[in-house]
Design a protein that fits this description.
Elements lengths: L2 E3 L5 E3 L3 E3 L4 E6 L2 E6 L39 E3 L5 E3 L3 E5 L2 E6 L2 E6 L32 E3 L2 E3 L4 E3 L4 E6 L2 E6 L7
Antiparallel strand pairs: 1-2, 3-4, 4-5, 6-7, 8-9, 9-10, 11-12, 13-14, 14-15
Organism: Micrurus spixii
InterPro entries: CRIM1, VWF_dom
Protein name: VWFC domain-containing protein
Length: 183
């Protein structure tokens, strides 16, 4: 069977699917990890926010409702500074942190506000506005101390040709290979 290895020592079998964060789903296929990131739609609200456990921002307040005016003097489209034309009630994202809507001939844009992150090294994924934590990196991986040296978690080393050690979550595990005596 085909196996995919991922950072951190985990592995997945052919066809397995898992989430590495709230926006990204990965699949093991032909010993390769294939990941897809969710694309968030534009939002029609004044203060979109994103919680730590959701991928796409949401509208905490009432969505902006396009007014269906019967005033024929108002244009049924909007034109931005680049000359792009949008129909009334059409929404779009000029960049990853901003959603815009065409209302009554005018363009209204709203910026996404990001929640605070609780990790040391937040990640900013392409196409997403807010940084987020892949895992809780504030909890450092345990290390092992042996004979005055420091070894990383999951690191292996040899004391001599017969004794091998391994660091596992702060514990040093050593095993000795017993060799047959020479005649």
């Amino acid at each position: 069977p085909t196996i995919c290895y991922v950072p951190g020592g985990e592995y997945f079998m052919e066809g397995d699917t898992w989430n590495i964060d709230s926006c990204t789903q990965c699949t093991c296929h032909n010993a390769r990890v294939l990941c897809e990131t969710e694309v968030c739609p534009p939002l029609l609200c004044r203060n979109p926010t994103r919680t730590q456990d959701s991928c796409c921002p949401q509208c905490p307040d009432e969505p902006v409702q396009p007014s269906l005016s019967t005033n024929k003097s108002m244009p049924s489209y909007c034109k931005n500074d680049d000359g792009d034309i949008f129909l009334t009630a059409e929404s779009w994202k000029p960049n990853v942190c901003t959603s815009c809507i065409c209302l009554d001939g005018g363009i209204s844009c709203y910026s996404e506000s990001c929640p605070p992150v609780s990790c040391e090294k937040p990640v900013l994924r392409k196409g997403q506005c807010c940084p987020y934590c892949i895992e809780d990196t504030t909890a450092k991986k345990a290390v092992c101390h042996f004979n005055g040296k420091t070894y990383a978690d999951e690191e292996r080393w040899d004391i001599d040709s017969c004794t091998h050690c391994y660091c596992l979550q702060g514990q040093t595990l050593c095993s000795t290979v017993s060799c047959p005596s020479l005649p």
